[in-house]
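Example noted here:
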Amino acid sequence: GSGAAVVDAFASLSVVDLKVQDDLTVTDDLIVNGDIDLEGAIDVNGTANLDVVDIDGAVDMASTLQVDGSITSSAKATITVADNSDTLTLVSTDTDASVGPVLLLLRNPGQAGVDDDLLGKIQWKGYDDATNDFTAAQIFSKIRDASNGSEDSQLTVQTVVAGALKNRLEFNEGEAVFNDDSVD
């Protein structure tokens, strides 16, 4: 009749549980005050601005990752390239008289260091003709004396000769040694 009222039931819809059987399109803001649990994939065509992200699985990125802050990892990282391009580049854009960029290898056990602690190692590995991997060369450093104020360290360069790593150069608090393993 002419006195009937028309109400837009979807203008301010409030339901306890809403089940959508097919596509749901939101043409304005979507605000969720609770958790969202997605069972499938999410495809974001714009920018996703997230305050905190906790990812339990793998992340596969097909583009560049830009991080404007620090990166901290509690596990190892592997960087792989499929050609002979630079695998890792450290860049400092500073133009003062200080050194940069800096690669720091820090052994931080959370307690006092002790004599003969190995501090870090750089290794070069490859595969022999039987597809076994082997260490071809390495450089490592260790603490010789951890006494506060009179610390001593050692830097050793090794290469493989006849299948075994041999000391080729060693620098410590008392001497610089060349070919101590007598690899003639």
